[in-house]
Amino acid sequence: FTKALIKCREQSGIERTDLLQLMLTLKNKEKNRDLITHNSERTEESVNQLKYNSYSELNCGEKLFTDDYITAHIFNILYGGTIPTATPLSFALFEIARNESIQKRIREEVEAIVIKYGGWNYSAFQEMVYLDQVIQETMRIYNYSTFLLRSVTKPYKLPGTDIVLEKGVFVNIPVSAVHMDPHYYPSPEKFDPDRFAGNNYKTSATFFPFGNGPRTCIAMRFAVLVIKVCIARTLFRYSLTVSEKTPLPLRFDINAIFPKVKEGLWLNAVERDTNI
Fold this sequence. Notes:
Distance between the termini: 39 Å
CATH architecture of the largest domain: Orthogonal Bundle
Strand content: 5-15%
Largest sheet: 2 strands, antiparallel
Shape: globular
Oligomer: single chain
Radius of gyration: 23 Å
CATH class of the largest domain: Mainly Alpha
Number of helices: 10
């Protein structure tokens, strides 16, 4: 499908303001020798930060922006922004269903903003601040990323110990252990969206659901938008409660890499009367 779309764009000359057009523009720049993509021999420096020099200054390898590469890149973004959203979305709806006050507050925010904008649009979703807090708290407790892998760039002695991490050593940072540390989050098991008032998905040394540093999840904004749209549209039309089929407390599958409830998350949805 993507290759057929590429062929259509190139033959018709149609240009749109989307991801595919950006990739095609880079493909044309590379074809016209206006863009350097990478060296044939990659150093650590070139991998971390690609240099854009003239072709005469660099020994270039094979072209990067081929049709196969563009197809794979688009698939990667769509996958990263859709499949992994199922986990935080499911747990967010679960927490909303069993916290009536939170559900009411989200619904009031959504209805007020929909009235303000006269419908659903991107700007409306951007103003749903409390819903953002709910999503962040969900990602703190039910985190999709199990760990972050980092390479030590220079010797570092762990404070209060004799342990020295030498340069080149890889360190696994357990995300859930940090997110559930009572030192950083008092009563960490409690679902409290107000922890993230004013945060707006800012990563820190204690909160990194999408990773951290210059290579955070490329589909982060898309994934968050998808989750917001699903929750807002659902609560606008339905009232949610937890089904009796969902045992409490939740029983997680210890063999699963990501948070997975053995019996599944079952909710009841009752359609609401709304004149908005």
